[in-house]
């Protein structure tokens, strides 16, 4: 038996004002689009903003459905829109913000496992890491240099 130790290094910023200006702008776009979430079942609204290497920003918000599994998270709404609109552009950064209509979300909200898997596909495709920043409604912002920092032992095309 040989142990396998997995480590990830994330950065934690105390407030949105501490992150670089370009990411603050991206996060504000995520916050703005969060209001477009259609979340009558969870009352939990998420916004995501993606910066591409052509300097375009593609946004997404969660869209729910009476048939619950038919809904989609903000991150996948955004990343699939980016892939559909700009298939040859690389994704540089993604900013995510979440808000509940029931309580103040003060802790950073990371993307769910399915969104991590969807996002990492584009890192593999573009052969370049995607920087990820996530937060709640207020408070700390967490940065990951790569989706893989949130998804070790990734399942990708090399497994097939
Ligand atoms: N949600 C997202 O949009 N992104 C995530 O990464 C986690 C969850 C949405 C899905 C659902 O509409 C609501 O938040 C509650 O789970």
Automatic annotation (TrEMBL):
EC primary class: hydrolase
Highest rank taxon of the organism: Bacteria
Domain CMP/dCMP-type deaminase: 21-158
InterPro entries cross-referenced by the UniProt entry: APOBEC/CMP_deaminase_Zn-bd (IPR016192), CMP_dCMP_dom (IPR002125), Cyt/Deoxycyt_deaminase (IPR050202), Cyt_deam_tetra (IPR006262), Cytidine_deaminase-like (IPR016193)
PROSITE patterns the UniProt entry points to: CYT_DCMP_DEAMINASES_1 (PS00903), CYT_DCMP_DEAMINASES_2 (PS51747)
Record's keyword annotation contains Ribonucleoprotein: no
EC number: 3.5.4.5
Pfam family, one: dCMP_cyt_deam_1
A molecular function (GO) term: cytidine deaminase activity
Catalyzed chemical reaction(s): 2'-deoxycytidine + H2O + H(+) = 2'-deoxyuridine + NH4(+); cytidine + H2O + H(+) = uridine + NH4(+)
Cofactor: Zn(2+)
Keywords recorded for this protein, A-Z: Hydrolase, Metal-binding, Zinc
Family: Belongs to the cytidine and deoxycytidylate deaminase family.
Purpose: This enzyme scavenges exogenous and endogenous cytidine and 2'-deoxycytidine for UMP synthesis.
Protein name: Cytidine deaminase
Species of origin: Christiangramia sediminicola
